[in-house]
Amino acid sequence: MKRSTAQILREYGPFPGVDNVHGVSYDGRHVWIATGDKLNAFDPANGQTLRSLDVAANAGTAFDGQHLFQIDGERIQKIDPQTGDVLATIPAPPGGGNSGLAWAEGTLWVGQYRERKIHQVDPQTGAILRTIASDRFVTGVTWVDGELWHGTWEDDASELRHVDARTGAVLESIEMPAGVGVSGLESDGGQQFFCGGGNSGKVRAVRRP
Q1: CATH number for the domain including 113?
Q2: What is the pTM of this model?
Q3: Which of 54, 87, 196, 201 could form a disulfide with 24 if both were Cys (CB 3.0 to 4.6 A apart)?
């Protein structure tokens, strides 16, 4: 397994009125963050908050190219990013603790924090198609260039992990600085990750090795 130390390129926030960052997504132009009772979009070029949607947003966030998906307790909501309207709802994986959320291969990928699992989920029905086990708490989840990555946050230590999407084997680990948590994870599709910083209220851009 390849190991490295995170290179933090930039910190965004804390943002006005934001105490926690629960989920992170990227629509190609703006970074979306789940902040409890709102989804906020900011410009990664300058960190300025541009929009805010009044939706329950206590965990992972994803973008499929057209819609936002947001975990809300025992359900996942499909949201119009222009209006904030909830267009559809599917059940989240049972057991609670659903944390990270990503879109890839036409499906949703849901991290379960304390269960230490990642589920591939049918976005129409919520049916679980595949489950991958981890040996660490799972926070954010993202895909980039066919690679599955997830965040961990346990005992004040956090990593970004590239894992085999079939077996869950850890292929690469990026260690975050001591005391820096990862509560959400999204790739920009290129050479950096956006990492939610939990109760710091920040988002950090980390170089992808």
Answers
A1: 2.130.10.10
A2: 0.96
A3: 196
Q: Phi and psi of 60, rounded to 5°? A: -65, 155
Strand-pairing partners, residue 91, are 75
Query: What is the per-residue pLDDT across 86-117, written as a single tens digit (0 to 9) for each?
Result: 999 999 999 888 999 999 989 999 999 999 99
Q: Which of 87, 81, 130 is nearest to 110 (CA)?
A: 130
pLDDT of residue 83: 95
For tokens 């079939």, name the residue.
166
What is the 3 state secondary structure string of 78-109? EECCCCCCEEEEEECCCCCCEEEEEEECCEEE
* C-alpha dist (Å) from residue 9 to 23, 73, 178: 19, 32, 16
Cα 89 to chain center, whole Å?
A: 19
Which domain range does residue 72 map to? 2-207
Count of alpha carbons within 13 angstroms of residue 181, beta-carbon side? 19
Question: Which among 17, 53, 43 is positioned nearest to 205, based on CA atoms?
Answer: 43
H/E run at residue 49: strand 49-53
Please give the tally of structural domains in the chain.
1
